[in-house]
Design goal:
By secondary structure, the chain is mostly helical. It has one domain (10-36, 45-217). 64% of the residues lie in helices and 2% in strands. The chain has 10 helices and 2 strands, in the order αααβαααβαααα. It has helices spanning 2-10, 13-17, 21-35, 47-51, 59-78, 82-105, 121-132, 142-156, 164-183, 189-206, and strands at residues 42-43, 108-109. Strands 1-2 form a two-stranded parallel sheet. The longest helix is centred in the middle third of the chain and has 24 residues, at 82-105.
Length: 224
């Protein structure tokens, strides 16, 4: 059993190594959020954003975003065909890179967060988000963009893609995540629009026949 596991992981070591991008992203995100702060920020909220109600319960969907990544990427990681895994990973990394670049050259923010939070569990969960994630550098929304990419990956999955119930559940989760970004006052409508535009721009490169896996990431065929 140990031999099979070692063989399985060794043939997927490149899939594991590229996840180091998340470390690079977190460093860049920290810099843009907490180091390069003495800049003029463009306020993105509009009267429409201010008219959207604050619904703390949607924080559950917001947090589910992290689990959603696992749902979308783990089956692709396990599957023998590495192309689907890299389609998802490269699409995620490309959008996150664009987000960092935009944050550096176009500092932006919103002023929608409530000044007072209640003492219920949902409000406490939101307070934890507010402490770790400032209301700056929100365009385009990575929460929205990544959710769109993950949903696409799940729909393309050899197994989940054949089951309408799973595809419907994934779409429902994706929609709830998107809605959560405005209902807990983390993002504006403009951020969501920006995420959709970025998704549509990258879709032809990663989720059509145009995609070609670079030879650097090719893997030996598994015998499992």
């Amino acid at each position: 059993m140990r031999i099979l596991v070692n063989s399985f992981l060794s043939k997927r070591k490149k899939r594991i190594l590229i996840l180091l991008y998340f470390v690079i992203y977190i460093i860049c995100f920290y810099l843009v959020e907490h180091v390069f702060v003495n800049r003029h920020y463009f306020v993105l909220d509009t009267p429409i954003d201010r008219a959207i109600p604050f619904i703390p319960q949607f924080v559950l969907a917001y947090y589910f975003w992290f689990v959603y990544h696992v749902w979308g990427m783990l089956p692709a990681f396990i599957h023998e065909d590495q192309n689907e895994y890299y389609r998802i990973a490269f699409a995620l990394f490309s959008g996150m890179t664009v987000f960092v670049i935009v944050s550096f050259i176009f500092p932006n923010m919103q002023t929608l967060r409530p000044t007072h939070l209640e003492n219920d569990i949902f409000s406490k969960m939101i307070a934890a988000i507010y402490v770790s994630d400032t209301p700056t550098n929100i365009m385009p929304s990575i929460h929205v963009y990544n959710a769109l990419v993950i949903n696409t990956g799940i729909w393309r999955s050899p197994k989940a893609g054949k089951h309408h119930a799973l595809r419907g559940l994934s779409l429902f989760c994706c929609i709830m995540i998107i809605l959560s970004t405005v209902f807990i006052k983390q993002h504006t409508i403009a951020d969501i629009i920006g995420a959709f535009v970025m998704y549509l721009a990258f879709y032809p490169f990663f989720f059509t026949r145009r995609f070609r896996l670079p030879a650097l990431f090719s893997e030996p065929a598994t015998t499992l």
